[in-house]
Amino acid sequence: MTFQNTREFARELDSQDTLNQYQDQFIFPKVNDKRVIYFTGNSLGLQPKRTKAYIDEVMNDWADLAVEGHFYAQKPWWDYQERFAEPLSKIVGALPSEVTVMNTLTVNLHLLMVSFYQPKGKRYKIICEEKAFPSDQYMFQSQVHFHGYKTEDAIVEIKRREGEHNIRLEDVLAKIEEVGDELALVLIGGVNYYTGQVFDIKTITEAGQKAGAKVGWDLAHAAGNIKLELHNWNVDFAAWCSYKYMNSGPGNASGCFVHEKHHNNPDLPRFAGWWGHNKERRFKMEPNFDPVHGADGWQISNLPVLSLAPYLASVEMFAEVGMDTLIKKRDHITSYLEFILHEIDKEVKGNFEIITPSNPSERASQLSVFLHGEGRSLFDYLMKNGVITDWREPNVIRLAPVPLYCSYEDMYDFGQILKKGILGK
What is the pLDDT of residue 44? Predict the structure, then answer.
C-alpha cells in the first residue's frame, strides 16, 4: 500500500480497521480537554472501560459474602486464577496447564531461576543481552552472588557491534557456542525495551538447549504484543507483566510459563507454598508439599483477587480479538507511523533516526527514535500538546502505536504536532 500523509487518508484507514471500535472501550486521559494520543502502552496500558465491573464484582462479593466468597462468589476466589489458563495459553502459545498468574514479573523470574538456574561445576554462566532492563540486570547480579559467583565471571552480555543499535542473531548464536559447556542459563528479553528489537526466540532457544543450558525469556514487552509459540518452541520457562500491552493496571499480577516437560520432574527445585499444593488436599493441612500439576504448582501464596480482576477483564478482551488480528493491525499501523516520521523528517529538514529494526519480523508495536539535534524540550512540547510518549536518555523517544486503542488518525495528528514542535522553536 502507498501511504499518504493526509487526514483524509488516515481516516480512510480507520474506516477499514476492524479494531477501530475498540478505541471506545478504553478510557483516555485528556490534555487541554482533548483526548490524548497515547504512545506509552509499552509502559502502562490504558484502562479498559469493562475493568471497573470486574473489580466491582469482587468488591460486592466481599461485602456480601466475606470469607464465603472463596467458594460462593460469582467467580469463586478459590480457583479464580484458573480462568486465565485458556485465554493466556492462546496469547503466549502454550498449553493451558503451562501458564499461571501470580506475583509480579521480577519476583516470578527469581522464583523460576530457583528451578532453572542450577550452577554446578564449570557450568555456571548466564547469557543475557547488553543493556537488559535494569531489573533483570539486578536480578542476574543477585542470583549469581547468592550462588557464590562473581558478576564479571558468571554474567556474559551479548553486545551490539560498534556503531549499531541492535544485536545480531549471529552474534547471539556465536556467544552461546563460545561459552559452550560453561553455560547454565540463557535469559533474554523477548523484545528489548529500549530499541524495540524482537529476538528470534525459537532459534536462540534451540541453540541454548543444544549447548546444554536452560533457556528462559522475560516477555515483559512481548506478551500481548508479538506472536508467541512457547510450547512449540520448547522454551523452558518465561514470565511477563500484565500492565503493558495487556492493560491490567499499574504493577499488576505477572504471568508465568513452565513447559510441560518439567511438570513431572520431582527433582526440580522450587520454592513451595500453600497455594501451589494439591488443590484437592489443600485444606487437609498436610506437612509435605505435593505440587499442583502444571505451572500452578509454582504458585506460593493466596492470590490477590482484586489484582487479578482487571487482568481477567483484559485477557477476555484479547480472547475476543485474537492475536492474529492484533498483529495484522500492529504491523500496518507501525508501518504508517514509520512513514509519517519519515515524511515529517523531510518537511522539517530534520535528522530522525529510527533505531528499531525496519524488518517487520524484528519489531512489534514500538518505534524508538533518536531525535538528533533535538532535546528534551521537544518531548516536553509533545506532552503539553497531548502526545503521551516516553523519553529515554540521551535523546530517544519511544512510540508504541498499540493496535487496540491507537488510530491511524492519531498517527497523522502526531506528525502535525511533532512538526509544529520543531518548527516553532
Answer: 98
Which residues is 362 bridged to in the sheet? Answer: none
Confidence of residue 131 (pLDDT cuts 50, 70, 90): confident
Q: Is 134 annotated as a binding residue?
A: yes
Nearest to 399 by CA among 410, 128, 89, 142: 410
Q: Please, which residues bridge with residue 38 across strands?
A: 388
105 is in an annotated binding site: yes
Judge whether 274 is annotated as a binding position. yes
Whether 165 has a binding-site annotation, put simply, is: no
Contacts of residue 404, Cβ cutoff 8 Å, sequence gap at least 6 = 19, 22, 26, 247, 317, 321, 326
DSSP 132-148: --HHHHHHHHHHHHHTT
Q: Does an H or E element contain 218, and which?
A: strand 214-218
Residue with cell 487437609: 284
3-class secondary-structure state, position 213: coil
The CB-side HSE value for 278 (13 A sphere, CA atoms) comes to 10
> Torsions phi, psi of 237, nearest 5?
-160, 160
**Tens digit of pLDDT for each residue in 253-295?**
999 999 999 999 988 999 999 888 888 887 788 888 888 899 9
* pLDDT tens profile 206-216: 999 999 999 99
To the question of whether residue 218 is assigned a binding role by annotation, the answer is: yes
Edge-to-edge strand list for the sheet holding 214-218: 99-102, 254-258, 237-241, 214-218, 183-189, 125-129, 155-158
Mean pLDDT of the chain: 95
Whether residue 380 is annotated as binding a ligand: the answer is no
Tell which phi-psi region holds residue 293, choosing left (phi > 0), alpha (psi between -120 and 50) or beta.
Answer: beta
Question: Which amino acid would we find at residue 222?
Answer: A
Confidence of residue 334 (pLDDT cuts 50, 70, 90): very high
Q: Is 243 labelled as part of a ligand binding site?
A: yes
Q: What are phi and psi of 406, to 5 degrees?
A: -100, 145
**Residue 398 phi, psi (nearest 5):** -105, 130
Q: Is the dihedral of CA 209, 106, 182, 120 positive or negative?
A: negative
What pLDDT score does 425 carry? 58
Distance CA 366, CA 364 (A): 6
pLDDT band at 348 (very low <50, low <70, confident <90, very high): very high
Q: Collect all residues with Cβ–Cβ distance below 8 Å to 299 and sequence separation of at least 6.
A: 81, 100, 102, 273, 275, 276, 292
What separation, in Å, do the N-terminal and C-terminal C-alpha atoms of the chain show? 34
